[in-house]
Each structure stands twice: as C-alpha cells, then as structure tokens.
Recover the amino acids of this structure.
C-alpha cells in the first residue's frame, strides 16, 4: 500500500516532468558519472535517458548510494548503435544536439531548449563520436574562459539541463503537466509500483 502523502508527492513530481527533454549518454563507463547525471536529470524533470553502448562497452552497475535513488525515477533506454538511438529520437520529433569541441559550434545559451530535444554527451576520454556529430542536427558548447576547455561529464550535463530548466520555466512548461491525462494516469500507477 502507498500512503496518500506518498501518492501526492508522486503526482506533484510527475506534474513537472518534461517528456520532450532527453539526454543521450554515449559509452559512458564511470558509474559515478552516470549516477550524478541521473540525479541532475531527476532534479529538472527529465523522464528518460538514452544509453548507447557499443564496441565492447557495457552499461556499468550503478550504486544505489551514489545515485541516491534517482535511477528509480528515470527510465533508461539502451541502444547498441548511435544510428538506432537517433532514429528513435527523430521518430519522436526531437532535435538532436551533440557536445563536441569543434569550430562553428553554437553556445548552449543560444539553443532553443523548449522544443522537443535530445542532448548528447560522450565518453569521458574520447567524447562524442564522429558518427554522433555527423548524425546530429547541430553541435553546442558550454562557454568557458579558462585554460582547460572541458568539464567533467556530470558537471557538463548539470549545467546543460539547468539551462533547459531555466528556459522551460520561463516558457511556463512546468506550470501544467506535459503528459496527456492517460499518460499521466499510467505514470502514476507505474511510479506507485516503483
């Protein structure tokens, strides 16, 4: 049985979820980084995260302690190829933006993150693959002025999703549920079982 207070908390959290905002993690191998990303995703109302693992990489086991339970509230979709992942996201009507140090990249702050969008972050060592960059709709950078022009992936994800949170808050997207009534009811029942 679930208490009325717990159900009210579930409903309140689901009412703020953003089903049109997704992250894609490509061959991320550090479970602490993944857990930190999932916590940031939960904090801003992201519903699902796509995980792409290929070339012998596998999804690592996550510590319940390090993810602080966020794993329970984020749906994970696992794909064996970038193309398979991106094809699915395109069928959902999402623009796909990669993060890659490249000439001609757009500033994070110039992206429209109120549209249906997927934001792609790459491996801790090699970054986003050339295939992902080629198949994406564009590439963005987090503006920086220091000597080192990169951030830890969990920090980069947090900065990025909080910019999406800022834009979506300003657009009123957290003021009313983004799910249909049927989707919302199904999510409530699903979360009550979690």
């Amino acid at each position: 049985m679930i208490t009325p207070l717990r159900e009210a908390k579930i409903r309140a959290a689901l009412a703020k979820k953003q089903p049109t905002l997704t992250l894609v993690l490509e061959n991320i191998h550090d479970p602490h980084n993944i857990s930190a990303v999932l916590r940031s995703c939960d904090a801003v109302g992201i519903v699902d995260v796509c995980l792409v693992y290929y070339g012998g990489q596998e999804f690592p086991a996550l510590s319940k302690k390090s993810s602080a339970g966020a794993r329970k509230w984020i749906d994970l979709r696992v794909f064996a190829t970038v193309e398979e992942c991106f094809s699915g996201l395109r069928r959902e009507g999402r623009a796909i933006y990669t993060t890659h140090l490249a000439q001609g990249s757009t500033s994070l702050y110039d992206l429209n993150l109120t549209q249906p969008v997927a934001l792609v972050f790459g491996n801790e060592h090699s970054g986003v693959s050339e295939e992902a960059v080629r198949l994406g709709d564009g590439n963005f950078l987090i503006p920086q002025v220091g000597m080192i022009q990169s951030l830890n992936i969990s920090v980069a994800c947090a900065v990025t999703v909080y910019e999406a949170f800022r834009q979506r808050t300003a657009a009123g997207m957290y003021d009313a549920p983004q799910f249909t009534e049927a989707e919302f009811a199904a999510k409530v029942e699903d979360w009550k079982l979690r």
Notes: Residues 82 and 131 are 7 Å apart (CA to CA). Helices lie at 4-14, 31-44, 64-67, 70-73, 82-91, 130-135, 153-170, 181-193.
